[in-house]
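Checklist before submission:
- one chain only
- standard amino acids only
- sequence pasted in full

Submission:
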Amino acid sequence: MTNIRIEDHCWHIILNSNANEKKCERNWRPVAELLERRNIRYELHIVRRPGEGIATAKELCQNGIRHIVAAGGDGTINEVVNGIFIAGIDTREVWMAVLPLGRGNDWVRTHHYPETIAEVVECWRDGNFMQHDIGRVTSRTRDKNHSRYFINIAGFGFDADVIYDVTNHPPHFFGLNVYKLSLLKSLFSHKPTAIQVSAKENFDFDGEVFMVIAAICQYNGGGIREAKYAVPDDGFLDLIVIPKMSIPEVLKHLKDMTSGDHLDKIQEIRMLQTTEADITSETIFRAETEGELLVPGNYHIELIPNALNVLTVC
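Returned file contents:
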């Protein structure tokens, strides 16, 4: 853990105007007043289109900026992280803070962020930064490789199928949250996929799976504790392979999956800590990071340990 004085630097805030159903920008003024009250200097960069957060973070880093804030949800954090890592700089020189203004806010759950933004900003006074692990998934196709960085969780199989359904439906349907609706739909339409998983620790799995998780942090999908043993700065990915499950089995363990107890109660789950793994399949096996679908292919997953200074309030 490293401490710096937040007030000694100008922070470049990348604000996602579309976060939390486009409420993020409309509700910015009270947040700005909190920062100003704490004498925190900042410059605001509003992004409005997918991918613009990546481009903005990349440009800032290439222009010498090293103090950045991701203001939005998990998708915003993901874009800022990707922008930092494709900028071609030493990422260990970057200090990143988070203003959780999104809807899901899964990353902050692992870091025990307070419930209100006022409390978050108040915690900034300590300036506690951890050297956070970062993951990278490379989709390998016939034509080329496509890489994506992640700071929370990469999900393969059912997780990604839910996101695939979400992207093809409007935000709400008869008043139900679209993610929860898509989760239920995907549960009844999901078909187990035959894959091969291998890791450098002589780990091999060959069979049909419900899902695979590569986790740095613990929560995904709006509060589902998919990887309760994951630690964001221990230098390892928690690789979790959940073999195929019937619908009754999934429903039986639904509460356990929300709390994280499925890792202890479902004996068929395979789990290990690793820094590198491969997933191969002869059919389409979808993947996602923070709600962003990846290019389908065979996947190489790797960890970059202690790669980014991230403000934590633990």
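Reviewer check: Residues 170 and 301 are 31 Å apart (CA to CA).
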